[in-house]
Design goal:
Elements lengths: L2 H7 L1 H14 L6 H17 L11 H13 L2 H6 L5 E4 L7 H8 L3 E5 L2 H13 L5 E5 L2 H7 L4 E7 L4 H8 L3 E11 L4 H14 L1 E10 L6 E9 L13 H4 L4
Parallel strand pairs: 1-2, 1-4, 2-3, 4-5
Antiparallel strand pairs: 5-7, 6-7
Helix pairs in contact: 1-3, 2-3, 2-4, 3-6, 9-10
């Protein structure tokens, strides 16, 4: 039997499991929002039959590696200034859709792959998330269209820390946050992030460490606050942040 059909047949079982996981990490979500997160996962698994959105097909693993992993960013997002956030490199809508559900904030979910964006917009419609939209664009170009339009930028395993700082700087308002989740970044990456943060006008204000349930991995969450303008003109041209990083 397909895993998404199992989800349909046992929603309460999976809702209870997800609720227990969230309790362990002090993340409060009501029953309706938990069911919305599960509905999103079901939609992802259904769409995955036709296109490659995820390699995680086991529901128990997906509860952790998709939903919980996304919602680990809920508390730092809740601590950020009120307003809309942008998820850069959203893929199948993670972490953006769970965070939009948990926070109730307006959100833009950005990705450079058009098929994924079309799928995510269909998920958004099915979930009735009225203040959320998925956009097909490169982050450097989108920053030219929407400069300093967001109070938070979130990113999950998209690129090295210096690249993410460069991507976020022209998008986020002064006082806004960049919230990054990583696995086990090297000390060199963290140190490069410190250098890039100064160039891009950010200050590292928090770093949290979590071990995921079921020995499914480790997470480091970095929270940067935009404290001033970047010392160089951003965004640079498309691809430059990755090919010629600031640090």
């Amino acid at each position: 039997m397909n895993t998404d059909l199992l989800l349909l047949e046992n929603p309460n079982e999976y809702a209870d499991k997800l609720s227990a996981y969230l309790d362990d990490y002090s993340i409060e979500l009501n029953d309706d929002k938990i069911l919305q997160c599960l509905q999103h996962l079901k939609l992802v698994l259904e769409a995955n039959r036709k296109m490659n959105l995820t390699r995680i097909l086991n529901i128990d693993d997906a509860l952790v590696l998709h939903i919980l992993d996304s919602l680990l960013l809920h508390l730092p997002l809740a601590a950020s200034p009120e307003g809309s956030f942008i998820d850069i490199g959203t893929g199948a809508g993670y972490p953006g859709i769970p965070l939009a559900i948990s926070s109730g904030r307006p959100a833009v979910l950005l990705d450079s792959v058009g098929k994924k964006v079309s799928a995510v917009n269909s998920f958004i419609s099915d979930l009735h998330l009225d203040n959320v939209s998925a956009v097909h664009d490169r982050v450097e170009h989108y920053a030219l269209l929407k400069p300093e339009q967001f109070t938070s930028v979130v990113a999950r395993a998209l690129a090295p820390i210096p690249v993410l700082l460069e991507y976020a700087s022209p998008l986020v308002l002064l006082g806004g946050f960049l919230i990054i989740t990583k696995g086990r970044p090297s000390q060199d990456e963290v140190d490069s992030g410190d250098t890039a943060s100064r160039i891009c006008g950010f200050d590292l204000i928090d770093r949290m460490s979590f071990d995921l349930p079921k020995a499914l991995g480790h997470r480091e969450i970095f929270v940067y606050e935009k404290i001033g303008p970047s010392s160089i003109k951003l965004p640079r041209s498309i691809g430059t942040a990755k090919s010629n990083p600031l640090a």
